[in-house]
Each structure stands twice: as C-alpha cells, then as structure tokens.
Amino acid sequence: GEALAVSARVAPLGSRLVLLLVEDLTEARRIEAVRRDFVANVSHELKTPVGALSLLSEAVMDASDDPEAVERFAGRMQIEATRLTNLVQELIDLSRVQNDDPLEDAEPVRVDELVAEAIDRCRHQAGTKQITMAAGGTADLHVWGNRGQLAAALGNLVENAVNYSPARTRVGIAARRMSASGGDLIEVSVTDQGIGISDKDKERIFERFYRVDPARSRATGGTGLGLAIVKHVAASHGGEVTVWSSEGQGSTFTLRLPEAGAARDRATDHPSGL
Ligand code: ADP
Fold it and tell me: Which residues contact 175 (CB under 8 A, 6 or more apart)?
C-alpha cells in the first residue's frame, strides 16, 4: 500500500518534470533557430553590398577610358559603401543594447533634449522632402535611463517617420506623463502621415531584419534593425513600444518609459526587484 502511495505521489510530479524538460528543450531549440537565422541574415546583408562593390570596381577598371561611366560607377560605389557602414553601425548598436545593462549608468534624462536630438538627426532628410517636424508637451519631463540608448531609440522612430512619409507631410512628436500602477510613465509618441503598416506586418516589424518593402528600406539606407533596437531599449528600461497605424494614412509609434522620479522610487521601495 505504501509503495503505491509513493509512486502515485511521484507520478504527477514526474510528468510535470518531463513536461518542463520538454518545454525547455523546445525553447532552447527556438532560441538556437533564431540565432541561426540571425547569422544567416547578417551574412546575406553583408554579402549584398560587398558583392556590388566588387562588381562595380571591376566595371570602373573596364571603363577607364570613359570618364562619365567611371563617375557613374564611383557614385554607386559610394552608395554601397554607405549602406555597408550603416549596417555595421546598426549591428554594433544592436549588440550594445543587447549586452549592456542600460540601468548601470541610468540617470534622469530630459525628454526635450532627446526630442531635439532626434529632430536634429533627421533635419537634412526632412528638409529635402519638405517634411515639417513639430514637437510638443516635452517641457519638464524626465525619463530614467541610459541617455545614449534612449537617444538611439527615439532617433530611430523619428528617422522612420521621415523615411516612410511622402514629401510635404508632417511628423509630430508629443510627450506626456501617464499614471500607471507601478509609478508614473512618460509617453513619447511619433506620428507621421506616411504609407502606414498593415495589421499583418505590424506583428513583425520589430523583428531583426524584417522589412515590409526591402527595396524601399534599402533605398533610404534602412537596415531592418532599427525597430529591433527600439524594442530592446524600451524593454530593458522597463518600458514598451507600441504601434498604431492605418495603411495609406500614417502611423504612430509610442514609447512608454519610466519617469525619472518614479523609477528611483520603485527601486528603493522594492530592493528585491519584485
Ligand atoms: P528599416 O531600417 O528598414 O527602416 P526598421 O526596423 O526601422 O528597419 O523598420 C522595419 C520596417 O518597418 C521598415 O522596413 C518599414 O517597412 C516598416 N516601418 C517602420 N517605421 C515605419 C513608419 N513610420 N511607417 C511605415 N512603415 C514603417
């Protein structure tokens, strides 16, 4: 009787353990597949501009007695070299946000400074497309985090808004404080009147290298890594990034981040992190 009781007690425990092990294996396999896809994607993305550069340099050599052709090929080489530089820089940024703990050098960061920096970064591109940029509501707001990472995240959102909008439209950046159960949050949203994103694509745009229209993304110097960086920065700061969009009408990307004061209060209230 006793042996039976013991095995009856072990059995449900045992099956739960097996189930956990199976789940662990599946998760490990999924992570491995994601890693393999990423390496394959990086190789492909690097090969494309390198291959183009190699062909173009051959073309330059063959056309040495045709100065116009040489100039044309050299121009295209410059575009490919820029593409390569952007990709390598974004890969470095992505690996940095994935490996560094942003809260190690966290500080209160002024939202108006982040916004001004993001606008500055896109001023040239917006100017050539006659896109108006306007910001509001940012005064006296502070978020808690790593200044460099937060600037990269907001910069990417504003850059995308400009890149995926037609000429003579408007990009608006708005900030406000929101009460939330865990402390106040700062919400920064970037709204464009651009091409918009379908519901199907909305689920995938935050993945590394996912682009709705790869040709369009490449033409504007896109790498497909920007939103993956934004998502990682938001999450590691205890925040989130969400998107609202209507195809052909425009998009709004919203970053929610802990407010400077609120984040510090939370850290002292709950030293265990719970
Ligand atoms: P990319 O370097 O291609 O811009 P991102 O990761 O920043 O890479 O964005 C992924 C894809 O999401 C883009 O290629 C584009 O298709 C789509 N996307 C991002 N932002 C916008 C936007 N504001 N409007 C429309 N589409 C966007």
Answer: 111, 115, 135, 136, 137, 138, 141, 186, 187, 188, 189
224 Cα: distance to centroid of ligand 1 (angstroms):
7
ipTM of the complex: 0.98
- pLDDT tens digit sequence for 110-125: 999 999 999 999 999 9
Residue 193 CB–ligand 1 contact under 6 Å: no
